[in-house]
Amino acid sequence: MAISRVCDNLFVYHPDESCHHCEVSQGEEVWRKELGAGEAMSGNKFLITARIQKSKQQPQYDLKRRAFFTSLFSEIKATNKLAILEVFRRFRSSIVLGKAAG
């Protein structure tokens, strides 16, 4: 029941004819009763489906292109870092020179 608090779109797979061939008599009744009790405790309703949707195929990524952009952005980040350090170095030396002149 704890998972129902995390997943808003959780479905329970239950084929229409699956319980007719079960060796446990009245098993579906017991299952539905327990499911109802769990829903009452959690405050969430479980959605029951008899069909499974196939998952969407994951898109294929161009790993060479990804590596290129990763290295490009790494270089840009390093360049910005060097530029900022240079500005601070010049600013600090101008302050030191200003104090020595004053």
Could you explain the architecture of this structure?
- By secondary structure, this protein is mainly alpha-helical.
- It has helices at 3-6, 27-42, 63-101, and strands spanning 11-13, 47-49.
- It has a two-stranded parallel ribbon.
- Strand 1, helix 2 (27-42) and strand 2 form a beta-alpha-beta unit.
- The longest helix is centred in the C-terminal third of the chain and has 39 residues, at 63-101.
- It is elongated.
- The mean pLDDT is 79.
Overall shape = elongated
What is the helix/strand order?
A: HEHEH
What is the topology, as strand order, of the major beta sheet?
A: 1-2
Distance between the amino and carboxyl termini: 75 Å
Number of helices: 3
Which residue ranges are poorly predicted, with pLDDT under 50 across at least 5 consecutive positions? none
Fraction of helical residues: 55-70%
Overview features:
mainly alpha, single chain, two-stranded parallel sheet, 102 residues, 2 strands
Q: Helix and strand layout, with pairings?
A:
Blueprint: H1 3-6, E1 11-13, H2 27-42, E2 47-49, H3 63-101
Parallel strand pairs: 1-2
Q: How would you summarize what this structure contains?
A:
This protein has 102 residues and is mainly α. It is built from 3 helices and 2 strands. A two-stranded parallel sheet has the order 1-2.
